[in-house]
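for the recovery benchmark. tokens below, seq after
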């Protein structure tokens, strides 16, 4: 972990110098180095904690003033496109700072993905060996992760446009924060009344893995928290808090990789036009270091205290957001 932190600090400083020297391709939407670092920290800290990284990033982009809907133009004066005009969509979708920021907050999830790869490389290697028929436990773990991933993949592909258009708002985040807090308190009370879970991530049944995946689908609503839903799903499958968190992190590796690659392919080039490569790399490096720290913290915390404290945090955050937004 110490080597990871030192390497990450070096990369942050290097990327910071690069970002400071980088001339933005779209001056109207220049992303400051400090803003890239803030978004990287928010992503890294909140991605695996049961508080919702998406919800916090929506809040962060709003506070940083990255919500402008004004169409952007390049240095040559030509419009920048989120979706270029086509025969099917003659008007296209102009690129705005908000659309670029929304894409940026998804792309820097590569940092959180890298953190899990660094911390859980043995389990990932076990799954590769399982795929090759050399490790039965790794093969079962891979099967369970793929089964848990499929529901969100199918439903996410079918609904992502509607979600992007209607649910990326402070009001939706507040509702999800409150609902998630109630769900955590229910799950913790239920867990306290049952014997300690003895199942392992590779030992749960296919049906239990699918059920965890169905719970993960609720996290498509911004502010819900993918890690919260999958950790609770692990509880219900008989995993203790530490193993439930481990399964959640590994499932996040699969899910976030798919989502980030999809978003990068769809609109990553447009986002780069606005913010530049250096800012993206800086955000990813910061997210890697902070996510690794958050993962270590969460495993230790859950083993001793469970998730109840995060429920009260969610309620406090919802109240604060409601006061700022509507009072």
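predicted aa per position
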């Amino acid at each position: 972990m110490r080597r990871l932190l030192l390497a990450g600090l070096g990369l942050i400083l290097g990327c910071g110098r690069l970002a400071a020297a980088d001339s933005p391709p779209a001056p109207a939407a220049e992303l400051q180095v400090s803003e890239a670092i803030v978004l990287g920290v928010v992503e890294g800290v909140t991605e695996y904690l049961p508080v919702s990284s998406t919800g916090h990033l929506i809040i962060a982009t709003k506070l940083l003033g990255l919500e402008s809907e004004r169409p952007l133009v390049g240095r040559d004066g030509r419009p920048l496109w989120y979706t270029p005009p086509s025969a099917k969509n003659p008007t296209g979708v102009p690129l705005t700072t908000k659309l670029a920021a929304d894409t940026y907050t998804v792309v820097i999830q590569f940092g959180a993905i890298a953190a899990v790869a660094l911390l859980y490389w043995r389990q990932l290697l076990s799954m590769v060996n399982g795929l090759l028929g050399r490790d039965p436990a790794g093969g079962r773990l891979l099967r369970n992760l793929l089964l848990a991933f499929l529901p969100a993949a199918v439903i996410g592909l079918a609904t992502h446009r509607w979600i992007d258009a209607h649910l990326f708002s402070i009001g939706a985040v507040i509702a999800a924060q409150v609902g998630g807090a109630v769900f955590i308190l229910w799950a913790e009370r239920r867990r306290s009344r049952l014997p300690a879970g003895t199942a392992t991530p590779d030992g749960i049944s296919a049906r239990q893995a699918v059920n965890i995946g169905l719970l993960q689908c609720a996290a498509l609503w911004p502010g819900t928290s993918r890690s919260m839903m999958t950790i609770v799903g692990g509880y219900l499958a008989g995993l203790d808090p530490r193993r439930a968190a481990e399964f959640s992190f590994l499932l996040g590796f699969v899910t976030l990789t798919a989502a980030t690659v999809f978003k990068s392919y769809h609109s990553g080039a447009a986002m780069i036009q606005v913010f530049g490569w250096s800012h993206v790399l800086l955000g990813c490096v910061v997210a890697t270091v902070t996510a690794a720290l958050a993962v270590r913290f969460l495993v230790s915390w859950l083993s001793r205290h469970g998730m109840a404290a995060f429920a009260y945090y969610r309620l406090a955050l919802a109240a604060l957001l409601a006061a700022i937004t509507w009072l």
